[in-house]
Structure formats: structure tokens, C-alpha cells
Amino acid sequence: MNYNKLSRDEELLAGIQTPAYVYDETVLLADAGMAGAALSEAKAHLLFAMKSFSSAHGLARLVDHVDGFHASSLFEAKLAREILGQNGQIHVTTPALIPDEFDELCQITDMLSFNSLTQWDRYKSQISGKVRCSLRINPGLSFIKDERYDPCRRHSKLGVPIADVHNVMIHDPDRLEGITGLLVHSNSDSDDFRELLTTVNHLDRLLGPLLSKLKWIDLGGGYLFYDPGKLEPLRETVSILRSKYGLEVYMEPGASISRRAGNLVATVLDIFSSDGKSVVILDASVNHIPEVFEFQDEPDVRGDIKIAGHRYILAGATCLAGDVFGEYDFAEPLQPGSKVVFENIGAYSTVKAHMFNGVNLPSIYCRRADGTYDLKKRFTYQEFKTHLGRE
Ligand SMILES: Cc1ncc(COP(=O)(O)O)c(C=O)c1O
User: Fold this and answer.
1) Which domain holds residue 232?
2) What share of the chain is helix, strand, coil (3-state, %, to 5)?
3) What residues pair up with 46 in beta bridges, in sequence order?
4) Among residues 257, 287, 321, which one ends one of the domains?
5) Residues lining ligand 1, CB < 6 A?
6) pTM score, two decimals?
7) What's the 51 CA to ligand 1 centre distance in angstroms?
């Protein structure tokens, strides 16, 4: 490695042990700040959906920038409470409430959204603590083309269909006694807040009498807050809910806060030719960015010039033939020891990664505001074997 040719940032990067997730604290806080500013201007509260990124140090950095965390299980809720202390709210929703965990969940949670009417019927007599209850509803308006992400797909398992809520509101309102809020999460990676406005107008038309009895509504995640020029429909949405129904409004974005902060840094281990193309074997795997494989996304790579250059298939470290990130062009040739940086992978990577083939999980580093790298976590053989049931 010729250090004379490296910038200070590359030099520091060269010093980290790979594979490594690097989350950039400045970007994380800036993106939390963008979501926070948009929501506070609209007069709504910001919860961070920790399902997208739960590295404990990152969550701890977010505490002062959010009103709380959204969790999807008892384990997430417990971690959220440990990190928040009593300084923030925890909102939980899951299609799978576990009977043995319910009481503990109620002690930790501030807002619990039931996923179905039957889930609500089953648990409402067991509610304890200060938890406020809501129903997750499925508004039945789809904005997502890929139905694997779409909570409003046909026969969805996520939320009570709006027609059923309407029916109960009219014919059996006592069944909703104890419900003080609603949760609607129905989008993914959209920066078009007109879709949110359309959704809320739909609720307004169908569920007005119920909304006027409630205290709060959580409009979910699935929206990106990056463009200040696109926020007017968000303000209008919140304004309808506040002025017409006096509702306290929450949103719980994940990716909008965590995605751009995260990079995966890998080292080139081997390069060879296969049927006329150059294949690079990295010490990382698509199992470290599982959505690459699940959804056949091609992650962004730093230095990808996107025009014919030194072209490589970047492949992962495992035995799976499809453990491949994609094909990329670089201005300079790669060689064993070169670093490859996958960018904008901060959402849904660390939380879904696994150790298939015994390939270790990437270490976790924080890139501080001064550009230095702080090692937060290195995974060990001990953790690998404990996970597999050997002490
Ligand atoms: C209920 C709920 N809230 C929030 C989110 C976060 O969504 P995103 O990361 O797309 O903002 C999700 C994602 O699946 C979700 O299911």
C-alpha cells in the first residue's frame, strides 16, 4: 500500500480491520436532524425505527435527537429502554405478540399497536402499566410496486383492513374501548408526502367518527425526509389530524435516518478470471448486506466510475454461487489488499446480517466528526459458537 498517495481519510480507512461496518456519526445525526426538523415544523414527533439499525452506540447517539424508538419485539424494546432510560417513548407493534412476554412488554412500552382485532381481543384484559393502546390499520392503498415490501398487498398480515375497522366503528364500537390511537405504516422509501396525505384523507373519509375519539396517531415509517422542498404535504397531513381531530402525531422512519450513515468496508482477497470476466473475492459477503440478495439490489460502491474502466465482479466470501454484490468499474486496478467500500448500506444490514459458513460478522466502527475511526465492536469465535449452542 503506497500511503504517500492516500488522502488522510483513505489512510485512516486503510487502518481498520475488515470486514467492517462504519457508521458515520455526522451523517447519522444530520439525517436524524433533517427528519426531526421536518416533523417538528409540522408539529409531529419523531421516533426512530430501530429495526433498521440497532447498534447500541449508534442508538445512544440518537437519543438526544429523537422523541423515542419504535421497536418490533420484546428484545428490541428492552434494548431501547436500556438506552433511553426514562428519556423517551417506546412504541411497539408486531404481528406476533408472545403470551409469556406480554406482561414484561407492557412494563417497558409506552404505546402498543395491536396488529389485528383478534390480537386486541386476546390481550386487552391483560394490559398493565402505563401503556397506551392502538390498532395498526391497513389503509388498503398501495404505493409500492414490489409487493414483498407492501403492507397493503392483498391478504396482508399487517394491520386491520380499514373496512373492518369501519365496520366495528359503526356496528360494535364497544370492541374498541381502550383503543386511544392508530398506527398506519404503508410505504417504503418514498419521498412523496402526497402519498401520506392521500392515505390520511382516506382515513379522514372512512374513519372520522373514530378519529375524533382518539388521542394520537402514528403515521409509520417508509418516507425519506431528504428534500426540504417536498415537505408541504407532510405539513398539510399533520395539520388535518391536529386541527380536525386534536391528535398528537408521530412518525417512525428508519431508513431515512440510518441508510446514508452506513458503509461496509471489505478487503480484496483474491482476483481471477472466470469466463472472460475478472472476479474479485472479498472478505465480506452479501450476508452482511442481506437485502442485496433478498431483493437483488446492487449496492453503491465508492469509486465506481460507471463507465468502462477496470471492471470486476465483486463477490462475497461464502460458498454460495450467488454471493455476488454486482459488477463495477474502477479507475485504478484492484489488487489483493485493496479496500472496497459499499456505501449507503446503513439500513437493514447490521440487523439482518448472519454468519453463514462461519464467516465472521463485520466489526463495527464509528467514524467520528473529526474523521477518526472508533472501534465499537469486534465479533469473536466465542460468540459464533455460543450462538450455535456450544459454551
Ligand atoms: C411499523 C413500521 N414502522 C416503521 C418502519 C420503518 O420503515 P422505514 O425504514 O422504511 O422508514 C417499518 C418498516 O418495516 C415498519 O414496519
Assistant:
1) 25-257
2) 40, 25, 40
3) 251
4) 257
5) 49, 51-52, 70, 93, 185, 188, 220-222, 252-256, 347
6) 0.96
7) 8
